Amino acid sequence: MLSPEFVTIVELFIVFFIPLLMIYLRIIPFEYQMQVIYALTIGVVFAMIAEGWTAEMMGFTTDNLLLSIVVYGLFTLVGVLILELLAKFTTRPVWYDWRKDKSLLYGFFPISVGQELIFRSYLIPVLFVFFDQVWLVILVNALLFASMHLIFKLPKTVFLTLFAGGAAFAGIYIVLPNIVLISLSHAALNFVIVHFGFLREEHRI
């Protein structure tokens, strides 16, 4: 019989490596990246439900709600300011009129929820199965999160920014798990990232 640890490793490989590799090798067209995230999110949620995860275990909780709102809100504001400064000092222009982009207007929140369900709600508890140290969980989580964006040709500054953001998200979520608030924060920062052209079509692999 297969051990639970082995099954978990297989799940991680399927969720975090195979899709990225298939997009990188163009087996899956780049244009279907959002559909891949949707499919992975549905698969991960079904897996969690099948394994008996409760809504609270998935991060749907109202514990410490006021403190969580303050912390996630402040983090989002600081993140927006950092991205604006990065855009300014890298002379990166706003690259299109976001008000005419339906994928930007309607896709950001569901994509952000999907990424948070995968990387924080699912991945963080799984990583604690393998690592006792919180810093290791944060490190691995941030590396996997940033690596997901390697389907783009990222400058080092952007990759490091994604890594830092992933580490901050992981750290905050471990202390104050709230999938709704972290998804809202992620959606806001995603909007700013695309608005300033950090992840552009011409940057794809």
List descriptors:
205 residues, mainly alpha, 8 helices
Separation of the first and last Cα atoms: 40 Å
Number of extended strands: 0
| Domains (count) | 1
Helical stretch tally = 8
Report the major sheet.
Answer: none
The global form is globular
Helix/strand/pairing class, anyone?
Answer: mainly alpha
| Percent range for β-strand residues | under 5%
Which stretches are low in confidence, meaning pLDDT under 50 for 5 or more residues running?
none
Mean pLDDT: 84
How helix-rich are the residues, as a percent range? Answer: 55-70%
Based on CA atoms alone, the radius of gyration comes out at: 17 Å
Helix-strand topology string: HHHHHHHH
Could you walk me through the main structural features you see in this protein, from its secondary elements to its overall organization?
This protein is an all-alpha fold and 205 residues long. The protein has one domain. The protein is built from 8 helices and no strands. Helix 5 (102-130) packs antiparallel against helix 6 (134-147). It is globular and about 55 Å long. 26% of the residues are buried. The mean pLDDT is 84.
